């Protein structure tokens, strides 16, 4: 078990965003977290990646209790994440954006700058190599020299993936990776996510596009109003009355598709 | 003309011009003003390493300039230390005080950081002005020595002091360049871009902000120490927040976060100030609108504006990019 979340609860004052959520993610799997808007999915990611301290509960990663660790420490431990709104450095080139992802594996500091040390040069080279490698992985090598402001939304998503991968994570948390891209591009991103899992990374993602999830995920956890209502394989989820209830409670069309953002 | 647009050649031209400048210009007043401008430039470079590289707007910068200046002044005049040991002590002390101030200040963020550091700057100003027995209060300190000779090199003429400041300015610019191009500099940039994203990729914003703050304080202290050894007199007015805003103005006009910005901004504004001397205080009527226009149209200052223009020019041939259309469509969907 790579990630194990036990009875995780987060309260913001009166509001309980996550209530006693359990989650187990196995190595090499793609694990999706779905649920209607406001179900507490992003909060849940923020808890795992350390952006919010949980009110109660435990998070175990590779057997280590990482509950309450700051995000930067969790990132070093091997969990990378992307955000719903990709914020990249718009003026910088694609390559420059991802080079910094290797920073947490380097040690050069200010004195290395002043003394122009070998370590600084070696680590710069390593970071550059890593940057090229991850760009190659996400299929953007040809855009390495373009400023981020000049590339498409879907390409920006790929850059964000590449940046996360540059940290050499074992677990990648993707927060709505396909939000705001068209159906064709969504398929392309799904292929990329599959490729991540196939090359040994574990992926945990939040997504609203059900068709994508159903074909991609090994397991699905459904959250509703901050609680886990069910977990299982896509087949199990699809026919589950609780899930249909959660999603379609007020949906007159009944086409089984949740609203997208 | 176009060869000048090449960054490297541009810098070489600047260095050559700076080296021959005192030989061509015999006017002592002009040389004095330019020497002073180089000292400001050192301070503005330090400022840029904080405000520009990592994006935390400290308004205490001028306070650290004053700490560097007063440390050198007090140690040489009152404690009877040697010049160079006082000089080193001034730099170290400024950086150390900067470290502790930063430790507290970075508990605040954004606007609050700016306000907090402005208060720190004002406290430094008040302490210097009021602590009569140590600093001499409003009367200030006089009789601060020029740098003593190093081997055969003496610093008692204006020309030699010009070269001394040029040397320190060059060192500062090199550090600014190395820092910008290093992993540490990239880390600063990542923090400036988004603290949230920086944390997600394992970078601690606080640690890096503190580092950049200390570096910037160090250069403020260096500029302060050089200033006082050049002018040989100090009063509390050098800690005045107005001077701090002036340095910020140099930086904004030249170009925040750029390498040449501090130099361009400082030289340009000092030159303008000198040419508009006859307007006295009302020259701000001219500077105000200029600054506002610049911030609106060229938020990255003169240097940033030129760089942007050059980039656009370079890009125009390869303008047609197929990916362009889906991008805007996709954004509407999202």
TrEMBL record, chain A:
<dbReference type="GO" id="GO:0016887">
    <property type="term" value="F:ATP hydrolysis activity"/>
</dbReference>
<dbReference type="GO" id="GO:1903805">
    <property type="term" value="P:L-valine import across plasma membrane"/>
</dbReference>
<dbReference type="GO" id="GO:1903806">
    <property type="term" value="P:L-isoleucine import across plasma membrane"/>
</dbReference>
<dbReference type="InterPro" id="IPR032823">
    <property type="entry name" value="BCA_ABC_TP_C"/>
</dbReference>
<dbReference type="GO" id="GO:0005886">
    <property type="term" value="C:plasma membrane"/>
</dbReference>
<dbReference type="GO" id="GO:0005304">
    <property type="term" value="F:L-valine transmembrane transporter activity"/>
</dbReference>
<protein>
    <submittedName>
        <fullName>Amino acid/amide ABC transporter ATP-binding protein 1, HAAT family (TC 3.A.1.4.-)</fullName>
    </submittedName>
</protein>
<dbReference type="InterPro" id="IPR003439">
    <property type="entry name" value="ABC_transporter-like_ATP-bd"/>
</dbReference>
<dbReference type="GO" id="GO:0015188">
    <property type="term" value="F:L-isoleucine transmembrane transporter activity"/>
</dbReference>
<dbReference type="InterPro" id="IPR051120">
    <property type="entry name" value="ABC_AA/LPS_Transport"/>
</dbReference>
<dbReference type="GO" id="GO:0015192">
    <property type="term" value="F:L-phenylalanine transmembrane transporter activity"/>
</dbReference>
<dbReference type="GO" id="GO:0005524">
    <property type="term" value="F:ATP binding"/>
</dbReference>
<keyword id="KW-0067">ATP-binding</keyword>
<dbReference type="InterPro" id="IPR003593">
    <property type="entry name" value="AAA+_ATPase"/>
</dbReference>
<dbReference type="GO" id="GO:0042941">
    <property type="term" value="P:D-alanine transmembrane transport"/>
</dbReference>
<dbReference type="Pfam" id="PF12399">
    <property type="entry name" value="BCA_ABC_TP_C"/>
</dbReference>
<keyword id="KW-0547">Nucleotide-binding</keyword>
<dbReference type="Pfam" id="PF00005">
    <property type="entry name" value="ABC_tran"/>
</dbReference>
<dbReference type="InterPro" id="IPR027417">
    <property type="entry name" value="P-loop_NTPase"/>
</dbReference>
<keyword id="KW-0813">Transport</keyword>
<feature type="domain" description="ABC transporter">
    <location>
        <begin position="3"/>
        <end position="250"/>
    </location>
</feature>
<dbReference type="GO" id="GO:0015808">
    <property type="term" value="P:L-alanine transport"/>
</dbReference>
TrEMBL record, chain B:
<feature type="transmembrane region" description="Helical">
    <location>
        <begin position="247"/>
        <end position="272"/>
    </location>
</feature>
<feature type="transmembrane region" description="Helical">
    <location>
        <begin position="30"/>
        <end position="47"/>
    </location>
</feature>
<feature type="transmembrane region" description="Helical">
    <location>
        <begin position="284"/>
        <end position="309"/>
    </location>
</feature>
<feature type="transmembrane region" description="Helical">
    <location>
        <begin position="7"/>
        <end position="24"/>
    </location>
</feature>
<dbReference type="InterPro" id="IPR043428">
    <property type="entry name" value="LivM-like"/>
</dbReference>
<dbReference type="GO" id="GO:0015658">
    <property type="term" value="F:branched-chain amino acid transmembrane transporter activity"/>
</dbReference>
<feature type="compositionally biased region" description="Basic and acidic residues">
    <location>
        <begin position="319"/>
        <end position="334"/>
    </location>
</feature>
<keyword id="KW-0472">Membrane</keyword>
<feature type="transmembrane region" description="Helical">
    <location>
        <begin position="113"/>
        <end position="131"/>
    </location>
</feature>
<feature type="transmembrane region" description="Helical">
    <location>
        <begin position="162"/>
        <end position="179"/>
    </location>
</feature>
<keyword id="KW-1133">Transmembrane helix</keyword>
<feature type="transmembrane region" description="Helical">
    <location>
        <begin position="210"/>
        <end position="235"/>
    </location>
</feature>
<keyword id="KW-0812">Transmembrane</keyword>
<keyword id="KW-1003">Cell membrane</keyword>
<feature type="region of interest" description="Disordered">
    <location>
        <begin position="313"/>
        <end position="334"/>
    </location>
</feature>
<dbReference type="InterPro" id="IPR001851">
    <property type="entry name" value="ABC_transp_permease"/>
</dbReference>
<protein>
    <submittedName>
        <fullName>Amino acid/amide ABC transporter membrane protein 2, HAAT family (TC 3.A.1.4.-)</fullName>
    </submittedName>
</protein>
<dbReference type="GO" id="GO:0005886">
    <property type="term" value="C:plasma membrane"/>
</dbReference>
<feature type="transmembrane region" description="Helical">
    <location>
        <begin position="59"/>
        <end position="77"/>
    </location>
</feature>
<dbReference type="Pfam" id="PF02653">
    <property type="entry name" value="BPD_transp_2"/>
</dbReference>
<feature type="transmembrane region" description="Helical">
    <location>
        <begin position="83"/>
        <end position="106"/>
    </location>
</feature>
């Amino acid at each position: 078990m790579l990630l194990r979340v036990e009875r995780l609860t987060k309260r913001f004052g009166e509001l309980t965003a996550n209530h006693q959520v359990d989650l187990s993610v196995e190595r090499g799997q793609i694990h999706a977290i779905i649920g209607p808007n406001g179900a507490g999915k992003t909060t849940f990611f923020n808890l795992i990646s350390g952006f919010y301290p949980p009110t109660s509960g435990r998070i175990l990663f590779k057997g280590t209790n990482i509950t309450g660790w700051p995000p930067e420490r969790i990132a070093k431990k091997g969990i990378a994440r992307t955000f719903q709104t990709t914020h990249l450095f718009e003026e910088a080139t694609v390559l420059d954006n991802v080079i910094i992802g290797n920073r947490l594996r380097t040690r050069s500091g200010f004195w290395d700058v002043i003394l122009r040390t070998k370590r600084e040069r070696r680590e710069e080279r390593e970071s550059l190599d890593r940057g090229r490698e991850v760009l190659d992985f996400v299929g953007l090598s040809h855009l390495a020299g373009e400023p981020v402001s000049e590339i498409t939304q879907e390409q920006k998503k790929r850059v964000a993936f590449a940046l996360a991968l540059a940290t050499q994570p074992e677990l990648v948390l993707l927060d709505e990776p396909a939000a705001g891209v068209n159906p064709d591009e969504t398929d392309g991103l799904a292929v990329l996510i599959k490729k991540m899992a196939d090359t040994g990374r574990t992926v945990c993602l939040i997504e609203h596009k059900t068709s994508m999830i159903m074909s991609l995920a090994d397991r699905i956890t459904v959250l509703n109003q901050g609680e886990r209502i069910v977990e299982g394989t896509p087949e199990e989820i699809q026919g589950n009355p609780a899930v249909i209830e959660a999603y379609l409670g007020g949906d007159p069309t009944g086409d089984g598709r949740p609203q997208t953002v | 003309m176009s060869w000048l647009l090449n960054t490297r050649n541009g810098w070489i031209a600047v260095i050559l011009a700076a080296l021959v400048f005192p030989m061509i210009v015999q006017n002592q007043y002009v040389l004095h003003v330019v020497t002073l401008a180089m000292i400001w430039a050192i301070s503005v470079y330090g400022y840029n390493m904080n405000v520009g590289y990592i994006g935390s707007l400290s308004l205490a910068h001028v306070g650290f300039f004053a700490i560097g200046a007063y440390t050198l002044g007090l140690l040489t005049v009152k404690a009877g230390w040697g010049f160079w040991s006082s000089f080193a002590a001034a730099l170290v002390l400024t950086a150390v005080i900067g470290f502790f101030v930063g430790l507290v200040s970075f508990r605040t963020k954004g606007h609050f950081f700016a306000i907090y550091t402005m208060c720190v700057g004002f406290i430094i100003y008040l302490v210097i002005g009021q602590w009569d027995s140590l600093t001499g209060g409003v009367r200030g300190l006089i009789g601060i020595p020029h740098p003593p000779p190093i081997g055969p090199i003496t610093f008692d003429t204006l020309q030699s002091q010009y070269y001394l400041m040029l040397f320190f300015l060059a060192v500062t610019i090199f550090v600014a360049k190395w820092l910008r191009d290093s992993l540490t500099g990239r880390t600063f940039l990542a923090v400036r871009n988004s603290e949230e994203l920086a944390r997600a990729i394992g970078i601690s914003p606080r640690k890096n902000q503190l580092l950049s703050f200390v570096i910037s304080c160090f250069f403020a202290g260096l500029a302060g120490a050089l200033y006082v050894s050049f002018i040989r007199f100090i009063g509390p007015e050098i800690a005045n927040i107005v001077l701090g805003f002036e340095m910020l103005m140099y930086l904004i006009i030249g170009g925040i976060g750029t390498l040449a910005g501090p130099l361009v901004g400082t030289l340009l504004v000092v030159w303008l100030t000198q040419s508009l001397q006859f307007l006295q205080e009302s020259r701000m009527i001219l500077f105000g609108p200029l600054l506002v226009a610049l911030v609106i149209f060229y938020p990255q200052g003169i240097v940033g504006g030129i760089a942007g223009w050059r980039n656009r020019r370079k890009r125009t041939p390869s303008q047609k990019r197929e990916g362009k259309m889906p991008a805007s469509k996709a954004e509407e969907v999202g």
